[in-house]
Amino acid sequence: MIIDIYLSETVDSWLDTLSKWATIGIALLNLAFIVYVFFSSLRKTKLEKEKARKINFFKTLILDYNLVHFYDKIEAIEELVYSNRQNCITTQERHDLIEKLEDLLVLLRRRFTDTLLSVDNKLYNEVLDRSDEILAELSVAISDVTVSLSNGAEFESKIIAPITSKKTDILKALFNYKG
Amino acid sequence: MLSKDNIINLEDYRIEGAKVFSGRDRGRIARNKSNIDKIEVKYDFVKIIIPNNVYSIIPSFLEELLLNVVLKLGKDKFLEKFEFISEGDYRYEKPLNEAIDRILRNNTAIG
Lengths: 179, 111
What we know:
- The complex is a heterodimer.
- Chain A is an all-alpha fold.
- In chain A, 87% of the residues lie in helices and 0% in strands.
- Chain A has a domain at 53-175: Four Helix Bundle (Hemerythrin (Met), subunit A).
- The mean pLDDT of chain A is 90.
- By secondary structure, chain B is of the alpha/beta class.
- In chain B, strands 1-3-5 form a three-stranded parallel sheet. In chain B, strands 2-4 form a two-stranded parallel sheet.
- The interface between A and B is medium-sized, with 28 and 23 residues.
């Protein structure tokens, strides 16, 4: 009987201690969780602020101020190929036209594409590659003696279509930019 | 002139019949296959031959081909060490300068 009472008191005391430690443990876990939530929301807010800052900068610097240079240079490329479609017959004339296109694409890079470097490297590379593709596709067509630029249909498909398609790709990349 | 020792002939990396060198992937292949980075270390002077009947070398092709050597040497030393020879009518200077500028610009920009 005495042993039973003693055992019962020991178990009670042990359970009591366990309960106290469990309470402390739960309180510590709660505290850790609160700290975690606090810091993760702080990080999220910082990231969102940075994203908003980048988007604002992108909108002001690129879309409001520099997009005009992009349209200008694409228009200049179109004007150049239109004005040379009848003259592009000899090897030298083909070389000259490609060289003029190279010049315009360097200007496009300097006046427009380079500004993207201050916003986002990936976007810069994307736009740079698409503008290089304009030069590549046009150079292939112009250097091909079997392509007659004075032929309306060939001129449309080999010269104008690549310019339009890459222009659209670049605009898509710009407007899909999310910071 | 064939590719040998310190001579790299781009003819070896031209797609058959192509008159335009283009594409970052093709530039990367040319860089790896030509061993340009190792050649630069081994020799004091390197020649790059641009074959006949080339109408254009797209800057991104050159960017990939010359990436490591330009980053290592910088523009002036690169131009001192590398000589470009065009076997045809193609004037390579503008795309070459464009590629060098892009390599150095991209490397120093804040991303």
